[in-house]
């Protein structure tokens, strides 16, 4: 029953995205597969924009106001599309009957794989960033604002923070009554399953115009660990995972905008109206990406440049000299514009960068076999991806995808192997994190592999179409078998539940779950955030500080971190206690060494100190009232 309930929660999280998204996409004039491909991006964008707008006017964020805001956006989109009267240019696709069953299977497989990684529905992601994200969900529930301009209030800060993921997860929490951890996990299942699968399938549909290739891509969508699973395990990078999951649908709209109308057909006014609608839809998609994780905008820029260069320059050899000149200028302007956008993103990005992790040959080899992360390489999938890449180079309609793939592959290899400071600064929108770049590769590897598999299915030496289909299904099954085999042979330790390096032990989690029962509603509790106390606010609703794993600024906290246990012998402690307004302290022992872990000797050992009264303990975890400063 627990897992059945969790599955229903994941379904709710999926509907939170798809229902408003489908309405907005329909209002924008999209039909058939492009509608469903764009629905996740449209839904995320509608919710994030609505949440921010409601925050600005002081209206509470709730399922009712979210629906009202999304409905208004859908109506506005319908009116604009009606005025434009743009012709429907959705590509005509062969073998459509294969697509829906394949998307269902791929979505279910992705959700199941993510559920296996999580382990239990209410497990907490034992990672640095999870503290902020879970606390932000609690903060949204307390303040009734999921605005990207308000969510930093979780930590007492202000400014912009992309809160689209938080809007989706908080609605899931409100609609189901789930706790913050379970709502976050249900949202992860929605991302890893239907959102990623449908969005990616839509991109393949718009690019290849083939139902078979689309169906194979949908079936292969959950087979690479690099995305979406690694981003929802390592980190944990909820916003980035959501942004990359909806990205294919945004690219699909651009690529498929004129897919049903051959070059030279249709009126000039019709082409202009279609271009305007494509621009409008793309802007909605870009808003969704920017409010999810802005670095994903640059991935879209790479895809758009690849598509634009191939579309502009492909007929180069058949054009007169004057047209060649204008197209050369257009290509140069496109690349220059992308460069300006990239540098602008670099200028506003953090200079706290990750180092390179491999040498060049190792990085290139792992990229080719998709073995940079996870239990092992994906040999079968990689072989067919290489075949599909070669095919894409030879077919004009697919050539942009090949160029996009080359660009992503170069970024991955550079991010993993080049330590030059200037180069790494150019990668700062992703913190120069090799893992975030590796997560981009499935955007092209899965489509290439699907193209390669279908090429085998159409091999002239098959006796009939049924034999080709069986061969294709056998290849897909073999990819699944290899994925499972690596997981059995070389199991990796996931970041959910208690491990040797996790933040929360079972005792600490049990104490935090019940913490609000032992303190007054307005009481403030302090603790070592890197020993697990940073999860306190999100899991309990009690005012536990700090609310992120990072060391807070200011001397008062530093004094307590080093000397709180010596309250009766250190004159600096009580002024710091009063300045921070803390009344209780969590003793979760000493923090382990490692990234994001801080040694705070003043926040443990109270059993041997004076000025502290034991309130409750759960095994090795305990809560103490600070009485020595009364």
From TrEMBL:
Residue intervals passing through the bilayer: 6-28, 35-61, 67-86, 98-118, 183-206, 213-231, 237-259, 271-291, 297-314, 326-348, 368-393, 400-419, 439-457, 469-489
Cell wall biogenesis/degradation listed as a keyword: no
Assigned keywords, A-Z: Membrane, Transmembrane, Transmembrane helix
Name recorded for this polypeptide: DUF6541 family protein
